[in-house]
Specification:
homodimer; alpha+beta; Nucleoside Triphosphate Pyrophosphohydrolase; Arc Repressor Mutant, subunit A; 9 strands; DNA-binding
Chain lengths: 251, 251
DNA sequence: TCAATAATGTGTTATTATGACGCAATGTAC
DNA sequence: GTACATTGCGTCATAATAACACATTATTGA
């Protein structure tokens, strides 16, 4: 994989990469899709390089769909990271030898890489984490229990979450993170999890329904140890309209 | 200039550049600092390349201060642009000949460049537009009268303004665009110009003073053909606090 | 069977923020 | 001194928000 890219490095944008923060929601937890290669002892964000004949957005879609198997989901660029020493000492000669990469070609990999951060919101239940090779582990990890990450990936993850928190006030988001049918309490949990803050049930209901993007279904959730909550779905048309025009006007 | 960079291209991040959208406010107009090189017939955003031994943010500061002579101003990365054909056919062999750049070295310049967009807010009155060479024109241009720009610079400019409009709801901004002492009507004009929308005088006053970042000075503006408006300044301490915590809480 | 439990659904009230105005005050120009 | 343009301050109706009360419903277990 990596060796193929380095061997044909003239086909890739030099010194530039993409990293994706892929968010999912499950068990009332905000999950992040992380990757670990066998020989490394740290986890990392799924990422990739940019073919010279591809838009950066297209390359990001490729990264996302290769790991999750889905496309057409919410994917947004949020920041670009380029500290001088951000990938300093990440690859050294020993690793290049291990990967059977010639020294001359390896130079391509040893320079400072600038990385473009994208974050994705995906429906957890539709994703099958997909290792790109035998020596790779792909796993959903609760964002509160993310272990030490390589390079500046922790900073990238934090920035993605901070961006998501701000965007929560500017647009609706549940459509991408929840299954087709869901309950208001589930939606509220999603908001609470992202914001890391308790919200009042009754005020949340009023505010979320006032947006006008929900359709109340004639169906209740089953198998719950208490009063069965009603199921809802998003009115995609109105949802997209609000997405386009934004939520809060401000001035 | 450009020849120097190309001749020493191993000192610069390949295929990556920075473009700055520098906003100023004057005569009730939102101005953008644009550049025109003599031989070209289109204007462009001030930009530059990224030394391999510099953080991208540092490189952006360098671009900004080289054109405006100021530093320590508001500068923020807002997006990265990387369509495959964004700088297709921008430099061709004829131009490289004109610039006396060898064909071999010129290849560095002919590839697809990804550019990182930064926007800056500066105090118009403190800036002296600074051409970096004899053959360059640097000028403030009303954002409503921006002529055709090179490459995708129009898209970059539009995105910067869209970002600024959103951020106007999330943070205070006048500090960077106005002189130290200013009147409420001036501040309101700034908001109206950025948002391209009329605001009610009385409601604006109430809202802006409620934020708690203004200090009313014991001084009035002179030389006005009507009732003299009071002068205000920003309470920098409270201003920075609001900048840090954000304006609207939303959820 | 039926009360206890743990949720959900709906409503109320006080407070605050917003939008749309009215009117007096002030400095300049003629 | 009066007309003019613009500022400063205030009012009122309406909408949005925060805090809270109570009834409803499905399950569980004595």
């Amino acid at each position: 994989m990596l060796k193929d890219i380095v061997d044909n490095n003239e086909n890739y944008q030099p010194g530039l990469s993409i990293d994706c923060v892929i968010f999912g929601f499950h068990d009332n937890q905000l999950k992040v899709l992380l990757i670990k290669v066998e020989r490394a002892n740290k986890w990392s964000l799924p990422g990739g390089f940019i073919p010279v004949d591809q838009d950066i957005d297209t390359a990001a879609i490729t990264v996302l769909s290769s790991r999750t198997g889905v496309d057409g989901v919410f994917l947004r660029q949020f920041a670009t990271f380029g500290k001088v020493n951000r990938n300093h000492q990440h690859f050294d000669k020993k690793i290049l030898e291990y990967l059977q990469i010639e020294e001359e070609k390896g130079k391509w990999l040893l320079r400072r890489f600038v990385t473009i951060g994208y974050y994705a919101l995906v429906d957890f239940s539709k994703i099958l984490p997909n290792p790109s090779g035998r020596h790779e582990i792909v796993e959903w990890i609760d964002h509160k229990e993310v272990p030490e990450l390589i390079l500046d990936h922790r900073e990238i993850l934090d920035k993605a979450l901070a961006t998501l928190r701000i965007e929560l006030n500017l647009m609706p988001i549940g459509y991408n993170l929840l299954p087709e049918k869901f309950t208001i309490p589930e939606l509220q949990k999603l908001y609470e999890t992202i914001l890391d803050k308790k919200l009042d049930r009754r005020n949340f209901l009023r505010k979320i329904t006032n947006i006008g993007i929900l359709t109340k279904l004639d169906e209740k959730k089953s198998n719950v140890a208490h009063k069965a909550p009603n199921l809802y779905s998003f009115d995609k048309e109105k949802y997209d309209e609000v997405l386009k025009n934004g939520l809060n006007q401000g001035w």
